[in-house]
Amino acid sequence: MHKTLIIFLILIILTYLSEAGGHSQQQQKKRSNPSAVKQSQLKGEKTVGQVYRLIIGKRNDLDICIVDGPKVRRRIYHEFLYGGNDERYLFNPPNEIWIDNSISAEEYSYTLAHEINERSLMANYGYTYTAAHDSSLRLERQMRLKDQGAARLHEAHLKKVSPTDCDGIKQIAELADSIRLNGIYISLYEIRDGIAIWVVDGSLIRKDIYPDFGLSGNEYVYHFIPHGEIWIDAQISCEETEFSILRETIQRDLMSKGMNYDLSYQRALSKETKMRYKKTREVLLKPPIRMPKHKMEREKGTGGSGQNNNKEK
Questions:
Q1: Predicted confidence (pLDDT) per residue in 69-105, tens digit
Q2: Exposed e or buried b per residue across 6-39, where buried means at least 16 C-beta atoms within 10 angstroms of its C-beta
Q3: Domain ranges of the chain
Q4: Class assignment of domain 48-146?
Q5: pTM, whole model, 2 decimals?
Q6: How many angstroms separate the CA atoms of 132 and 161, rounded?
Q7: Helices in the chain by DSSP H: which ranges?
């Protein structure tokens, strides 16, 4: 009897300590997660947290944000595709351009231009969504054709390259010692500090030049990459692009100064990891998304008189 009573008392004490500990941990999580605190303050409103994946920066005074596309489709708006802006979507915070993390590095620049143009036409001229969207599709096509021409012209002026890596390994034995690059380049992503960052056809590289091409590279790692270039595989997620550029830029700089591949890769990877942690903390500061009570999208822009909302631009 006494033993039963003692066991019963011990269970009560353990239960109390467990509940107290859980409550303490919950409070600690709220203090360490600003998003959770803000979400708890939005009483009576439906919100969705942790939508943001990466804050890219500003363009035309707009915040460019890569968001969790599958989560947006699952929890907010099932027709969300490629990207969005605050003129089209009522759940999209003001002055933010959203880019779906499901799209590739190849599609990023076209999607960004599309959303900025669409928002501008709706906000400044009162365009309907359909007219603004169609105008942005035409802009996309112009950009794609221009990039295609620039890529072919770039390849036409390149000298032959060696299909080997920094260890002198040629992975496709039947290739000549020097080859011409053909159909590899897709678009010029950006030029930074004199380095041309190209989006390339990684699948074609792995088929015809180097099967172990790992989604990005520079001329010190792969001898088939021309001097002064960084290559980004078109197939990687747009969420990964900036991290790949950072890693390649650091490794390229270290190898140009004589550091070997293995050590330079580890140094670059370490800095990339730190940047990932920094960017993760940045998105955790973003508040949850407030869900509109009624409509999710806007069919006509807020700007202008609306008289020119079907005029092509």
A1: 999 999 999 999 999 999 999 999 999 999 999 999 9
A2: eeeeeeeeeeeeeeeeeeeeeeeeeeeeebbeeb
A3: 48-146, 161-283
A4: mainly alpha
A5: 0.83
A6: 44
A7: 2-32, 34-41, 69-75, 105-125, 129-156, 202-208, 238-256, 261-284
